[in-house]
Amino acid sequence: MTALPEQQSTPAPPGVLRVSWRMWRTKIGVAIVSLLVLIAFFGRFIAPFGENEALGIPNDPDLEGSLFGLGKLGYDVWTRFLYGGRPILVQAFLSTVLALVLGTIIGLVAAYNRRRLDDALMRTMDVMLALPQIILVLVVIAMFGAQTWLVVLAVGISTVPRIARVVRGTAVSVVERDFVASAEALGEPKMRILGAELLPNVTAPLLVEANLRLTFAIAVIGGIAFLGFTSDPGAANWGLMINEHRGVLAGGQPWGTMLPVIAIALLTIGTGLIGDGLSRAAAGIDRGTVDA
Amino acid sequence: MGNIGVWKFIGRRLLLGLATLLVVSIVVFAATQLLPSDPARAILGRDATEQSVNALREELGLDRPAVEQYWDWLTRLVSGDPGESFNARLPIMDYIGDRVLNSLFLLVLASVISIPLSLLIGAYSARKRDTAFDHVSSNVMLALASLPEFVIGMFLVVLFSTIVWQVLPAVTVIASGEGPWNHLDQMILPTAVLVLGAVPYIARTARASIIEVNESDYVEMARLKGAPEEVVLWRHAVPNALGPVFQVIALNVAYFAGGVIVVEFLFNYPGIGGALAASVRVRDIPVIQFLVMVLAALYVTVNLAADLATVLVTPRLRTRLK
Amino acid sequence: MTQAVRIEGLRLEAVASGHDIVDEVELTIAPGEVLGLVGESGSGKTTVGLAVLGHTRRGVRVASGRVFIGDTDMLALPERELREARGKLVSYVPQDPSTALNPAMRIGRQVVEVLEFHDFGGSDEARRARTAEVMHEVLLPSTPDFLRRYPHQLSGGQQQRVGLAMAFANRPKVIVLDEPTTGLDVSTQAHVLATVRNLTASHGVAALYVTHDLAVVANLAHRIAVMYAGRVVELGPTAGVFDDPGHPYARYLMAAAPDLGGEREMVGLPGRAPSPGKRPVGCAFALRCELATEECHVAFPPPIEMRPGRMVRCVRPGAVPDRTKAPPVVASSSTVSEKPVLSLRDVTVSYAEKQVVHDINFDLSPGECLVLVGESGSGKTTLSRSIGGLHHEWVGTISLDGKALAHSSRDRSVDERLRVQYIFQNPYSSLNPRRPIGASVARPLMIAGVDEKEADRRVGEMLERVSLTAAHARRYPDQLSGGERQRAAIARGLAADPEVLVCDEVTSALDVLVQASIVELLAALRRDLGLSMLFVTHNLPLVRSMADRIAVMMEGRICEFGPAHDIIERPQQEYTRRLIADTPKITVNGHKDHPDA
What we know:
The complex is a heterotrimer of chains A (292), B (322) and C (597). Chain A is mostly helical. Chain A has one domain (13-283): MetI-like fold, CATH 1.10.3720. Chain A contains 12 helices and no strands. Chain A has helices at 16-21, 24-42, 77-83, 86-112, 115-129, 133-144, 148-175, 178-185, 190-198, 203-226, 238-245, 255-287. Chain B has a domain at 103-284 and 294-320: Orthogonal Bundle (MetI-like fold). With 597 residues, chain C is an alpha/beta fold. Chain C contains 20 helices and 22 strands. In chain C, the strands form 4 sheets. An 8-stranded mixed beta sheet of chain C has the order 6-7-8-3-9-10-12-11, with helices on both faces. A 6-stranded mixed beta sheet of chain C has the order 18-19-20-15-21-22, sandwiched between helices. The radius of gyration of chain C is 25 Å and the shape is globular. The chains are: A mainly alpha (292), B mainly alpha (322), C alpha/beta (597). Chains in contact: A-B, A-C, B-C. The B-C interface holds B 215-218, 220-228, 231, 235-236, 239-240, 313-316, 319 and C 50, 53, 55, 57-58, 83-88, 91-92, 94, 96, 99-105, 113-114, 117-118, 150, 152-153, 166.
């Protein structure tokens, strides 16, 4: 028997992350998001004034020493802006991670244990989908008040069915593939099959979906704050800020509204670009148009 | 198409939808039972006497067993009487009936504009695939799809109502009893926000769906049979691309149901979204319960319609039902 | 006589890169002639077939050349006239009718439609009549009820007949058939082939029959064109090409083709044809050719007329590579051992509560190769999956060395799980794409409790045993060809140190040359390691050289069972006889003569 012609050793096939990183849209997205994360987390250290420091007449557009003028209660708009990003980012991130973990587990378990357990899990998910996310969050707020951890929990849990659906949808076709049967024939434990055989094969759509859900979580959490539901009405928050200042938009002091609006717009467009890069990469790898 | 299978399918889906609504109603009702605070006290305030609170509890039926209260609420809801608002102390229908109509008008208007518009954009970008138009439109769609409604709304307000131009009203002023159709200029911005939010999703799905069908073997076969392009498009491609598009349209109408809350709040539009936000603020439980049920019913109805439409355009699904 | 089809200097390239997909193609087909265009996947045969209709797929463009149908150059026609020519002058029968028929249209409409496009007969009345006629010609009913069916309500064979009806409806001059019988059972395939043969002969239609299966065209085509890496490397009358191939590649192809009538072993050739953009300057086959000399790497050899009507693109036409000189089949001495390694007693298998396999009894002796042959739906795969512990709905006894096995692999002991190894049909799906080959091959070792260092060594050993290298352990499945993947999957099976190898259609996803090399590998493993093998297949010729005994399965039962030679030479059951008769054979007495000859 002849040996096969020796091939040149090639590196591992590029993952979605690496392929998407080659795209300019992903790079721009990452740059924008990094900038806003920096502002949200470290902006407070360069803030010229205190978060709750009243400097003069509310909504005074040109106070000496104030970059963007004053806002509600005479606070400095620029300072409030530098403080106001963190709650939205942290809550959106935590709720997405929560949803990612639960949704992935539920999706994988449902896909692997077809029939009854699958039916039960996915029917439950369907019922949860019957209500728009923001309404579920509002109901929870009506019950317990707008506490931060509750909002995170509510947004996270209402995101679970959306992630579970995507994971299950992808995993169902992976379960049908023979390498899973091969693992079963060898008697691999179920946990190992879920974790080592299925999970690595759903990461691409999972990453895309996680990113999409992060974008939506920012929208919902920002939206809730915009409606005026935050745990501490005195604390700076971009969503709340927009609502507080939109009355004086035409009155010569647009910055209280414009700064957070632009920030949230950039943030969501940034995550959207990353997600688009990921999904293009995933589609390219699936179609084999990306060179391995 | 006297097909018993289709009717069976509709029946099954209808039952499933009703079951979903039933579960939602149980969850919503149970949620109110979990309330840490006593609604009667919440209504009367902290200074009320124990006696008056108890009297109100009795009047509201809060002293009865939960199952009995639920059954009572559900049967009255089904018969069209959702009860009385805690806050306004008025029958909910008097207080909210108009608003349901106003919101429905907003939703229908947004759907009627966004669905054809996005199908057109989707079909056109599919045809002009990989041209400058396709790239530009896909990037604009991506940006719009990422932006939250309140951000789109604020941009529109800045652009058309305040800083740049002052051509459109920034808030709606519609008196109760007055239909929003009498103030179409005030409808423009709220509708635009919803349309801009929905178009990217439908357009992208339509584009992907048409491209997939266009690359299918049967469309290639139609061309190899010598079919004229319009026959290829209308007879072979479009009918097979409809299914996924119906599903996304349904998803987006359902998404409007969430979007109206922020949009109505932003433009002070007298609809159920604004009412829901206001009721949450004052914990007006019966109103919240009613509005949540209305929105869930909307979701179930729209999805039912989409499933039915999909089955009707997909013979493989239709005949399997026999 | 004027040719019905004349292809001159055809070159098609990838739009993006400009790499040649096919090049220098020169072919003619006479009226009434069937030209078999034979090649492996990626050879460009379908691209040529579509170009005959003036069609290119997305991302492909015609770089140069002409394709004449009669006097019409299909590549120079304006849009409108091209449309008029397609389906009328020249028509197409697709590879997979299940995707090529519009799922949302009734089949009657789809046939009538092609008549309408070309205004056949001038009236609806005439078109209805023609539809009924053409349905009759392809042996389908033309009742209103049948015409109102949707494609998914038809069997695969019926779907392909609808494809033929659409193609013949306008009585075209030329018809292109693109592997129209792939995926059909042999009996259905035999019917479809007979229909094609009759219709082309009786209507004087020129046919281009694109296929990877030599046996299919052996009895259908008048002439054969062999494609490799985008070029026609050999062209000639069927009998000549089959009996005495001029190009080494064609020789390998013949040597690798499974043949029920053949009296020789199959010979494989590992490796794969270079894809567009990676093709060398010289002869594309030189890299794999044992006869290659320096001049082969300089330029692609020009066509040489080896004999009148025989064109070969090789500097040494007619030379015979040693490796293709196949040894004759040695009738295997059926080993009947007193103690079977695997035995089945009254095994009945159900699928979703429906019985699909009934009362199976057989023993597998140590070192024996037992072949389970049957058409799709015969229950052979379900049965083999039950043996492997992958399907749990069965009753009866399956025992390994006298000890009954549990239904589910999970309930079997580690030792039992390792001793029976299952090799899957599709190597594109049986290896986890997210894990290096080495990690997949190491799994059985890990389960057996081998430590990591020892496992590493054994993985390298196993990979070499299947003619891969230890370096393959670090690669991912995506970086391997189909044949290499199947070798890796076999290495995984071997790593368990099994007694019984259950091979489920292990070559059906592979090209002919690779298929033969995998069969060779399995035969060697059996010889060297004394493995017992249960080989499941629908492809009877494939197993002729390997099988000790054959069990023929039909509708969930074993209808005939016995020594391989006896079954193939003297089948007793009607079903087996029909199966053997319907299987196309390469070596039959007298190939079809050329109509001009």
